[in-house]
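Support case: user asked for a sample of complex input and structure output to validate their parser. Sending the pair below.
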Amino acid sequence: MGKFVQLVVDGLSTGSVYAALALAIVLVHQATGLINFAQGGMAVLSAYAVWWLTNRGLPLVAAILVAIVLSVVFGALVERWLMRRFERGDPDTAVVVTIGLLTLITGFAGWLWTYNNQQFPSLFPLDTVSFLGVSVSVRSLGTTAVIVVAMLLLQGLFVGTKLGLALRAVAINPQSAAFCGLPVGRLLMVGWGLAAALGAVAAVLVAPQLTLTPGMLDNALVYALAAVILGGLTSPIGVVIAAWIIGILENLAAVYVPFIGFDLKVAVPFILIFVVLIVRPQGLFGRKTVVRV
Amino acid sequence: MTLLELEGVTASYGPVQVLDGVSLSVPEEGAVGILGANGAGKTTTLRAISGTVRAGGRITFDGKDIRGMRPDQVAALGIAHVPEGRGTLGDLTVRDNLRVGAYLRKDRKGVDKDIDYCLDLFPNLEERITSNASALSGGEQQMLAVGRAIMSKPRLMLLDEASLGLAPSTAKNVYDAIRRLRVESGIAMVVVEQNANLAFTLVDSATVLETGRNVLTGTSAELKGMDEIRRAYLGG
């Protein structure tokens, strides 16, 4: 029993990492209608910014705050100078552009800072706390807490604020939004900037554990996309819960299902996606889009 | 007082010239119809006004040159475009669609009052207030599109084919409500409509476009009396 609970707790902790990235993807999707495959790559750049600043002697928290501000600016610039050119065309083209951007950023980071693993300072102490025979690292608790706060903030933004409503309106139909006086271009930049800030937070949370490399979040991106599909693209709370489910099931399957083991555990979220897409195509928590003519 | 004035407006999509010198004059609180066959340039004229297509010539609103402005800047001046195909925000509820329409307004109480007004004008929307716009019928979506335009408290409304794809009785309901809106609010209107019979129930005057040019302009009474208008647009 102790082992089972330990696996669940560890799963929650890795799930929180996927959740962080998944939230950023949901944010861009809600605000622009696109899936941004470069979200992980942009987040890694933010982590490198933090790493570079701390190496220059800046305290960690200050470096993180500076990196978040830089990320907002970078996200907004990517929207303004790159994505803007593709937004009026086929959405598929825009998605492929984000894949290209991911490749470009990864290569750029590798060229600038090499592909070697870099030690990254942890925001939380490395202690563990024991509770009913289960040991949990303070870092996992901290990561999970930050994710829950981010999730609630996002849900509040989209459901409870005028800005959130405006972001969603622009994503659904930019032309109608403009006819209502919404500054479409500026709102798209805000959406990308906010998502980049969220990505920066995600990267800072996971970098100490994964160690910093240009491809640090490639794996997590796969899981995050699985969580996004599972949880439903429209629901911040949904994707976080889905990410936790994935983290837990993956851990349990690796130990309790012999033929999966640690080598095949990456397949777990995809088996889950298959099942969910067949039974509930809009995701576990997503809203079904009904179109009447 | 003239509210909107178009003089020699031109516009093209790539090499295809669609507007070839369109003129239009809308007095304050007036309603002007634009009639014409498919491809005559009716929709493009509205787009030129709202800034969704690049136009030449002169477009002034309230004495101010608005040609070349972005759609959101034009909207901020008080021009609400109800586009062809309605353009409702499918994944948002009816109430949220109306709130998006009021995005630029700061008076919360006034916004709530105007939402009530829209629901009074279009009682169908009241029962659907928490439904997603994509779940509405075509007629209800058209009502929502007009309602959203009302929410921005415009001085001028551009209505593009508000009867398109609707059953005759539904189209009549929509036009009855718009006529009531016109009387009660004094919003000026430019009305593009294939169904000239419906248009003439709403507008004081109209212009007929052919291949991007005005060929006839007159009051509703004058136009309705002309044989060529009867034959081409009024079904006999």
